[in-house]
Amino acid sequence: MSGRRLPPLGSLRAFEAAARLHSFKRAAEELSVTPTAISHQIRALEAQIGVRLFERQTRRVAMTAEAALLYPVLRDGFDAFAEAIAAIAARRQRRALTLSATLSFTAKWLVPRVASFRAAYPDLDLRLHASDDPVDLHGGVADAAIRYGRGPYPGLVAEALIENRFAPVCSPRLGLRRAEDLRAQSLLHSEWRHPTEDTPTWQAWCARAGLAGLDVEAGLRFTDESHAIQAAIAGHGVALLSLALVADDLAAGTLVQPFGPVLEGYPHWFVRPDTPPSVEVLALRDWLRSEATVEAASAD
């Protein structure tokens, strides 16, 4: 099959624009060239195909009969080019959304599960915004957030995602069996930014366990709960932690819950602005629900 013998693309674009706009000047503005350049392109095209394409008038140009035959073919062709390129570009534009959560929840619950999200939604990019400071969801920093607390959250739609329970956890290497064993161990504390009367603390736990005389203020303190978790895994002491955040560590055996009792905490909530949600936000919510359900089932 012989190759196509076509005029230069620049000449064809100049002709199509001039024919559509009935003006060399307007065609030049559209193509970001000078009117002289358009005129030269048209003359070159006329010379190559051997016919006159335009009648030059005072304020506009008019197509000849031959140009009237050529114009719709080029117009439709360029339209098809534009549509194909736009379709390709749209396929390359990945959708994205941002989920904000605390440092510890991001590190211990979200990050281990991002592969599941990618598998479920391969065309959707999930961006994790880790911060212990609540973000303004109406300000565009994030599309949704995970928050721990009592609720409600004015101006937001909140759905309970994970019920929290807190209990002592430690490395199995410590060999703890009963609450009295805590007297020989270092207590690990994670500091709460906004403690309330219901905040799970070693003092509250000892009261529930009936363990008197334990110095609940002694031990190592961490401003980030994930650091307290790592210290517990390393065998540096016993931490009072959310069982939801250490569920994977408990399942893997790097941490154990040697004894009770268990303190009830507030839920982790999925929160979003109280405006109609996007398809992407609903997809994120459904995925989080599914992961939370799987975890609850495994805990039981």
TrEMBL record:
PANTHER family: HTH-TYPE TRANSCRIPTIONAL REGULATOR (PTHR30537), HTH-TYPE TRANSCRIPTIONAL REGULATOR TRPI (PTHR30537:SF74). The keyword DNA-binding applies. Pfam families: HTH_1, LysR_substrate. InterPro entries: LysR-type_TF_proteobact-type (IPR058163), LysR_HTH_N (IPR000847), LysR_subst-bd (IPR005119), WH-like_DNA-bd_sf (IPR036388), WH_DNA-bd_sf (IPR036390). Keywords: DNA-binding, Transcription, Transcription regulation. The lineage of its organism: Bacteria, Pseudomonadati, Pseudomonadota, Gammaproteobacteria, Lysobacterales. It comes from the Bacteria. This is GcvA transcriptional dual regulator. Residues 7-64 form the HTH lysR-type domain. Transmembrane segments: none annotated. One of its GO terms (molecular function) is sequence-specific DNA binding. Belongs to the LysR transcriptional regulatory family. The keyword Transcription regulation applies.
